[in-house]
């Protein structure tokens, strides 16, 4: 299983999934009222939902960028993947089997 992705090797798939799920919830809060998927009765509620959704989405993205790291060099893997203008395949970066910064490839954990 030497081609196991780095995020699984370092047991960071679950935090990544949780962060993406929270981002989806935040996006629904933000764009749901805009698209008419649900329409709150009061304008204040509408505005509160949109602002809360933006805060939840950006907060979750920030948390993910700080949380998904290389245990050896400390590189912030998600931030590394999305912040480089020359890195068109940011999803490919998340699917690598080693750290994109230092090439560290830990052993596959036995209990995961
Ligand atoms: Zn590294």
Please give a structural write-up.
This protein is mainly alpha-helical and 112 residues long. It has one domain. Helices cover 57% and strands 0% of the residues. It contains five helices and no strands. Helix 2 packs antiparallel against helix 3. The radius of gyration is 17 Å and the shape is elongated. The model has no long low-confidence stretch (mean pLDDT 88). It binds zinc ion. Zinc ion binds next to loops.
Features:
elongated, 112 residues, mainly alpha, 5 helices, binds zinc ion
What is Rg?
Answer: 17 Å
**Which H/E pattern describes the elements?**
HHHHH
Helix amount, in percent?
55-70%
**How much strand?**
under 5%
Shape: elongated
Bound chemical compounds: zinc ion
Number of helices: 5
Euclidean distance between termini CA atoms: 12 Å
Structural class: mainly alpha
Number of spatially distinct domains: 1
Largest β-sheet summary: none
Low-confidence stretches: none
| Strand tally | 0
Concise summary:
This protein has 112 residues and is mostly helical. Helices cover 57% and strands 0% of the residues.
SSE order and pairing:
Layout: H1 6-9, H2 13-35, H3 43-67, H4 77-83, H5 90-94
Helix pairs in contact: 2-3
Zinc ion is lined by residues 70, 72-73, 75, 99, 101-102, 104.
């Amino acid at each position: 299983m030497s081609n196991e992705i780095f995020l699984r090797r370092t047991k960071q798939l679950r935090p990544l999934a949780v962060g993406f799920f929270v981002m989806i919830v935040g996006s629904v809060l933000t764009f749901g009222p805009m698209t008419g998927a649900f329409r709150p009765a009061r304008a204040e509620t509408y505005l509160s939902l949109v602002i809360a959704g933006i805060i939840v989405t950006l907060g979750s993205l920030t948390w993910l960028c700080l949380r998904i790291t290389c245990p050896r060099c400390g590189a912030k893997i998600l931030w590394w993947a999305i912040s480089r203008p020359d890195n068109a395949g940011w999803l490919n970066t998340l699917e690598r089997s080693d750290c994109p910064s230092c090439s560290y490839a830990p052993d596959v954990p036995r209990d995961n």
